[in-house]
Amino acid sequence: MMEKRSANYLRYLPGLSRVGAERTGEILAINPTITPSRTEAEKIHVSVYDYSADTINTEVLENIDSTFSYKERDTVSWINIDGIRKNDVEAICAHYGVHALIVEDILSIGQRPKMDEMDEHLFCLLNMLYFNEEKKTIESEQISIVLGKNFVLSFQEDASRDVFNPIRHKLSIPKSQVRQRSADYLLYSMLDLIVDNYYLVMEKVGDLVEALEDEVSRKSNKRSLARINQLRKELIVMKRNVSPVRDLVAGILRSESEWLEERTMKYFKDVHDHILLAVDLSDNYRDVMMSVQDLYISNVNLKLNEVMKVMTIVTCLLAPATVIGGIFGMNFDVIPAAHHPYGFYAAIGLMFAIPILMLVIMKKRGWF
């Protein structure tokens, strides 16, 4: 019902029914007051990295129950769950003492990125961004991260991709920073990679913006307007996902959670600096797109003015011939030179001589 209602509204917006209306529907059809109807994953993929400075144990599990034993260990455990299923999420969160509201957020769809502290757990929800080279669109994947005593739980929707391969590589190196630190450093590493990946997506979008700006400057057409509309929607997606992460990281910096060590806070400050720059860049891209749209409108108006100028000049040049023809075409018995043997040629001569004189005057005045 919600999708049908959104489609009815969209058809009244100019141009959207023709250019990317489906994409607009995807962006606008988000209502947090409606219980999400998530399609549960057919199967889940559970990977566990249990490590300390000296040892590391990597396991791939097929069920949630096998992760329960990591709660009481002295080592740091990163339990990553690919694929969201309600029963599995509730089971592992119940065992690790995660609050019911956090469980509800993990199972949600289209949530705004945020950070919460509940029952001695620190919870982060944000989106990983990817750029679809084929469709030229930004795709997002929601990830939920729960930080507790010596463990990090992460919940992803798509098992086929994420941005955490550099962390997995560092975990295999005994002397790496992530192996020497506690679970809060692992949380920092995950947030840092997610934010850094934003720049890769923004770089792709920036290339499209520059190409479109060059196209509009050289030769714009209706396809240029379609591309402008498409890129504006992608910038909305980027802005919606990037900007709230600033508040998320700022909340971590203000947090007094016992699981956040003082020596790790400087790393979160570095992530905060990166996300501030990302927000500024997204604003800059939006400003550039507004300038491109203004440039397109100016080009359209310029073309219209050129056409109107040509038509005006033609009308002015034909005006003398119309006046002369109208005078000598009046139904009077006595018209000067009407019966003169050279009257016709004199009238034709005036019809050509006056427009030529008008052209000379217009040229001298720089009207064209």
Characterization of this structure:
The chain is α+β, with helices and mostly antiparallel strands and 368 residues long. It has three domains: 34 residues, no CATH class; 265 residues, Beta Polymerase, domain 2; 55 residues, Methane Monooxygenase Hydroxylase, Chain G, domain 1, CATH 1.20.58. 54% of the residues lie in helices and 15% in strands. It contains ten helices and seven strands. The protein has a seven-stranded mixed beta sheet, sandwiched between helices. Helix 1 packs across helix 2, helix 7 packs parallel to helix 9 and helix 8 packs antiparallel against helix 9. The longest helix has 64 residues. The radius of gyration is 34 Å and the shape is rod-shaped. The two termini are 58 Å apart. 28% of the residues are buried. The N terminus is likely disordered.
Structural key phrases:
Methane Monooxygenase Hydroxylase, Chain G, domain 1; 7-stranded mixed beta sheet; 368 residues; 54% helix; Beta Polymerase, domain 2; 10 helices
Q: Numbering strands along the chain, what is their spatial order in the largest sheet?
A: 2-1-3-7-6-5-4
Count of DSSP H/I helices: 10
State the shape.
Answer: rod-shaped
In total, the number of strands is 7
Strand coverage percent: 5-15%
Regions with pLDDT < 50 over 5+ consecutive residues? 1-19
Give the overall average pLDDT: 86
Distance from N terminus to C terminus (CA atoms, Å) equals 58 Å
Taking the sheet with the most strands, its summary is: 7 strands, mixed
What is the CATH domain class of the largest domain?
Answer: Alpha Beta
CATH architecture of the largest domain: 2-Layer Sandwich
Could you please say which CATH topology of the largest domain applies here? Beta Polymerase, domain 2
**Helix share bin:** 40-55%
Number of domains: 3
By secondary-structure content and strand pairing, the structural class works out as alpha+beta
CATH superfamily of the largest domain: CorA soluble domain-like
Roughly how many Å is the radius of gyration? 34 Å
Secondary-structure element string: HHEEEHHEEEEHHHHHH
